[in-house]
Amino acid sequence: MSTPASDVRTNYLNANYSVRSWLLTTDHKRIAILYLVSISAFFAIGGALAGMLRLALLTPHGDLVQAETYNKLFTMHGITMIFFFLIPSIPAVLGNFLVPIMVGARDLAFPRINLLSWYVYTLGGAFTLVAAVTGGVDTGWTFYTPYSSTYANTNVILTALGVFITGFSSILTGLNFVVTIHKMRAPGLTWNRLPLFIWAHYATSLIMLLGTPVIAITILLVALERGLGIGIFDPNLGGDPVLFQHLFWFYSHPAVYIMILPSMGVMSELVACFSRKRIFGYNFVAFSSVAIAVLGFLVWGHHMFVSSQSMYAGMIFSLLSFLVAIPSAIKVFNWTATMYKGSIALQTPMLYAFGFIGLFTIGGLTGIFLATLAVDVHVHDTYFVVAHFHYIMVGGAIMGYLGGLHFWWPKITGKLYSEVWGRIAAVTLFLGFNLTFFPQFVLGFLGMPRRYHVYPPEFQFLNVMSSAGATVLGLGYLLPILYLTWSLFFGKAAGPNPWGATGLEWQTPSPPPTFNFDKTPVVAEEAYAYDSPLEGHRV
Amino acid sequence: MWPTTIGRGLRWLPQQASTVAGQVDALFLFLVTVTVLFSGLIFVLVFLFALKFRRRAEDERPKAIHGSLVLELFWTIVPLGIVIPIFVWGAYLYFAMTQPPAAAMEIYVVGKQWMWKLQHPGGQREINELHVPVNRAVKLTMTSEDVIHSFFVPDFRVKRDVVPGKYTSVWFEATKTGEYYLFCSQYCGTSHAVMGGRIVVMEPTDYERWLTGSVADESLPVAGEKLFARLGCSTCHRTDGSGRGPSLVGRFGKSEKLASGETVLVDEGYVRESILNPQAKLVAGYPPIMPTFKGLITEDGLLQLIAYIKSLKMADGTQAKP
To answer: Which residues of chain A are within 8 Å of residue B180 when distances are taken between CB atoms?
Structure first.
């Protein structure tokens, strides 16, 4: 079938080439591109910091950098990756681009608020970057008090302000998604016909709206104590240092689900498309996202089993943490079942989906170790925890992000990338990731605490393995930057639906026109109707 | 900087050197088994499906399967049936790990950036080192002078945060003589990584020899008694109960009725609070006249006072009736 004249007609990219048209755009697709560029820059910074950390850990003696520098490096790595890359990654890039198109709308509900969110994000990022280059901060991304509020001599307030400001971009994005999904669905697009990507973003948006204000308040309280000496967390001023941990994790544990839920949404799209199957147990996959969002708010205390929190509180948080594992397990089982009797194509996005399933399964199951009270006492604050959350956040969230980026790249840019290089990169990332982080499980169980810039010599072998893996991982991240950029200039035209996928986004040209659809689409079938005789999603 | 006496070469598992280590490891190995089985199951299925159902023709349109309630219930209930026992097992063990035996030997620990100060009941002080006898329960009562630290001995599988402004405790019973790493596992600033040392587990006779051989300050209760007199506590807290404040004899470990009508357990935390913030939980029947001693007394001094108050028994050696 011949592609529609997508190359000659006006689309969101070629509508206007001026810088002003980009910086003042209210088109959700252009804002997605703005976010893509910004978060990629922060990812590069965070990745470079990780590279320096792994280089420094090659020897047990801290030969490369001083303790002060090392502490700043891991702090900035965490802050950059979590607040400026992972949290905005899928929602602000793929979500921004796809939510309106998937629901058949012309744009998000509040286009100008959407643009505002990018400026807020950029402003927060600027604060944090200024804090980094004018001396950095060494509190860890967790800002634990009273170290952060009283004892640290680094740029705590400036960095905290950066994180505080950026939180509002997250709130604005969440607000936009919730309203759009409620009010702007195309005719016929009922809730149980929504793509699971939309369900995942809906659940994520709820967390963004309800959780982010709490971290904003908490950070503000740290700044108040630090700047004005108002006693909240420092016991010398009459405060309670453990109170901070409650407030911090009340947001920051759900924030893990802000990072992983959108990735799960991407997974459902990928597994369905590359198995040519309806998602097995659609309702269970959809509601498990909401269940994760709700239960995720009730488990923060599992970060505090050794913090002096009451033993009975610890038991309740432990129990609830086991329960939150169930909806995640349900998703993994349903994705696997979706492949049964499917027509499975191992194209690049599907390889990332496999990578996600593998790494997220290990990450999730090692989370069970941490929810188990007696075991957590031993591995808490060791490399076991570091390995676990990298399996979730890198193995899960970033694999999902890259899988999604590869899946929708032809839609976003109108160009096809090299399939061969795509597969090579996916496999490289998977191998490099495991070599980097698997040894850290062993290190943690052996007892190596996290945030150590020097360590006993018997831990060196495993650290060298991890650093070697990081080199492979770094290479794996460079490849997509190269071949995706290459595709922009030399890639073949993608056509509207290169994967033969269902979903409204594949029924409009690539790249989509400014208002997405020539006329409002009408939805007459459920999502993932891959066996449907309708012509809409055929190649 | 690391105690070179420990040097143990590459190893894959930590030593089991305490009574709980083996129990924690049994649970850990069970979890490893569950992880291997579950991820193995998923990996094998994904691999087999990818192979068996690979796309053979571009125009394949496999028939849709909408799902199965039976399967959904199955893979909801089975994981629940596995994790709930794990929860119970972990909680049961955790409970045991947080309840020190009554006869435990008591050590006082003060963490500060970036060192551990430890003191034996007999007054022997140590820095970044703790000598303990083997096969004897040891309870550590810990606090911090500045930020949060965490007392972590991997080979004992014990860890507990050390929090400024309150007392936390951890206990262990070492089962093998030798030397074991002590780490600070809660990030506490620049030299966090070197805030560690070693635990030296000795035969009881060697431990006695070590105790007598090391220079001891006064024992904690004696030092506490002197401080009690010097700070003027003894003018009101008279032992015969005739003072303006309650007698402290035989009070430790008992419940005390408060002016507010509540009752409170007299433990380390309550004594500490009553010294630093006397009006917070006033004992019923006494006027709110005690001044705060905040800023006048060090963490070490507080621990000495507590040791002294603990040592105040009734004349017949029993604790007071509540």
So the answer is: none
DSSP states of A212-243 as a string? HHHHHHHHHHHHHHHHH---SS-GGGT--HHH
A339 pLDDT exceeds 70?
A: yes
Q: What is the mean pLDDT of each run of 10 residues along chain B (322 residues)?
A: 68 90 96 96 96 90 89 94 96 94 93 93 90 96 95 96 95 96 95 94 94 80 88 86 86 87 90 89 88 86 89 64 40
CA distance B19 to chain A (A): 13
We report the CATH number of the domain holding residue A309 as: 1.20.210.10
B113 contact residues in A (CB cutoff 8 A) = 151
- Beta-strand pair B115-119/B125-127: antiparallel
Answer yes or no: is A539 within a domain.
no
pLDDT in tens, A467-486: 999 999 999 999 999 999 99
Is there a contact between B67 and A334 if contact means CB atoms under 8 Å apart? Answer: yes
Q: What is the ipTM of this complex?
A: 0.92
Q: Would residue A538 count as lying in a domain?
A: no
Residue A140 touches partner B, C-beta closer than 8 Å: yes
CA distance B317 to chain A (A): 32
Q: Is residue A520 part of a domain?
A: no
- How far is B241 from B118, CA to CA, in rounded Å? 34
Q: Does A278 touch chain B (CB under 8 A)?
A: yes
Say if the Cβ atoms of B46 and A365 lie within 8 Å.
no
| Domains held by chain A: number | 1
Q: In the beta sheet, which residues pair with residue B105? A: B138
Nearest to A140 by CA among A48, A192, A76: A76
